[in-house]
Amino acid sequence: MRFFTCVLDPQGLGLANRTRQAYEVLPRQRGLHYEWQCFESAAVLTGWDDPYGDPLVARDGDWIAAGMVRLDNRPEIEKWVHRREKAATDLELVLSVVARYGSEYVSKLLGDFAFVAWNGKTRRGVAACDAFAVQKIFYTQRGRFLSFASRAEALAAGDEYELSYLLALVSLHNRPRGATVYRGVRQLPPASLAAIGERRIDVRQYWHATDIAMEPSWARSEACLVEECRQLLADSVRQRMTSDCTTWAQLSGGLDSSSVVSFVQWLAERREIPNGLAGTVTFVDRQRTSTDERAYSDAVLSRWRVRNELIIDPPTWYDERFAPPRTDQPRGDLHVYPRDNRLCAIVRAAGGRVLLTGVGGDELFSGNMLYFADWLAGGRALPAMREMARRAAIGRVSFWTLAYRNALLPLLPRAIQTHLVHDQDESMAPYWVDSSILARYGFAGRPSSAPAYAGPIGKKYHHAVASLVARIESPTQGGVLADCLDVRHPLLYRPLVEFSLRLPPELRARPHAHRWLFREAARGILPDAVRTRVGKPTTSDFLLLSLSAQRKYLEPLLHRPILADLGVLDAATLREAFTSVSQGLAGGNRPYGTLFRTLAVEAWLQIRSGRWPQRSQSGSKADLVQAYTPSI
Length: 632
Description:
Blueprint: E1 2-8, H1 17-23, H2 25-30, E2 33-39, E3 42-48, E4 57-60, E5 63-71, H3 74-81, H4 90-101, E6 111-119, E7 124-129, E8 138-142, E9 145-149, H5 163-170, E10 186-187, E11 192-196, E12 201-205, H6 222-240, E13 247-250, H7 255-269, E14 279-284, H8 294-304, E15 308-312, H9 337-349, E16 354-356, H10 361-365, H11 371-377, H12 381-395, H13 399-408, H14 414-421, H15 424-427, H16 435-440, H17 460-470, H18 480-484, E17 486-488, H19 494-501, H20 505-508, H21 516-521, H22 528-531, H23 540-549, H24 551-554, H25 562-565, H26 571-582, H27 592-609, H28 621-628
Helix pairs in contact: 3-4, 6-7, 9-28, 11-12, 11-13
């Protein structure tokens, strides 16, 4: 783990020892090395258990910066600031840009970054994070200090939690924008920057997916667009590779991770990058579920001959040797921490430092049929009717159902849409959540997610596509993987994202051709067994099995839930729901997803308080590596 906390003192009175000690709680609790660096009206605390990576602090005249930065367009930035020293870190380059241009060029930075830059003389500064919060930054204001950090817990005042945030998590509602689980601690939202003054922080968004206009004329340029997509995918993985054979990748057998692995090896085979992947890791679950996809991952391995390590049937929820991790904030993937620990151990034992994922592919290249509503709004009723009839015949579905959902419903007033799509079983909070607290925070009677029909008349399709992309946020930051490795997501390369947003529906929403353009761009690179596969197993069986298999470890969570103590839910009702599901007694309408999320949030709270697991051993990172190191 590496983190920074930057404490700004606009009055320049300095940090008392008591103030410093409050900020040192996190590194002390985690057993991290840490140090302070003091500047005019600012101090930066950095902590680490691994020195890998660039320094987290930079200085340029009256300016200082703290942050984590990896740039995709470094040559372009070097031209802006007339600086070409190879020894300069990416953070130093960004600080040079801010010192020269202020926040003007932040929207043009490409890559993964979160930083705060401060001028000790003018007492003004800028903070920003990348478009998908691959790197996150949090802030708070207490007394005269403005503080920024790469972890929310570094700024938390003990165990003071934000109930509205917890309530949104367990009821599957959208979390309040910019909120965190800690009271008084805010997150800079994805694609946002903050102008910092002596007394206030003004936040604005510098990039909006909805601002990228669709290009209808592209429908006539299929071959050119396939080639452009292929080049962007190649550029993306090229930017995220290291030249010292320390890059690994996840390989699930799905379209996205398999494409990332294949594009890396294809570039290495063509000698367009110095080396390919050092290895890949595949998770395999054989326990009466359908998530063993080695038939597909093996096709990739056979074609590219890259090293592969298997993690077969790891436990869920609890590992008998190592206690669950204290993640920065509650996470929905807490149940898979044992497999993530083992992945980290395998990669680190082999000298790996960077991990590539396939995050983002579904959001970028999937389409929908809401363009029929746009055609109707634009006076193209007859073409819309004909195409809907063709789609209905191809899909063997009712024409009237298809037309209602994709042409009529999107054009109705928002209030009517919400009423018509409101499903009591799925979109309301789970029955163990207290209805009075739902009403107090404005969640009562609201669907857990807004209808997918927002946006102006005539632009329903593009708004739905762009909104889906805008909701992408790195799922790894603040979790086990990102605390151990430098996790990178090639499919979140912003030029690739903007390219996908310009695609017209003819290239995104073809019948029986899910993500057609992406698959065509991978032709000849990704083995056809994977490239042409249809569908992918769901994880519902795996999730339900994990509840029953680990019941003895999960039941203690429900003896005296912290969420019940906070007034969020009824403990007896939650215990009844857990018993029904874990024993296989629940009916088909039980909210499995909300139960799973509730347990994950409760587990996170009890881990922080030291109440769960009741019997655990704590191992160091070195112990973990030794325990799970495969034969090499």
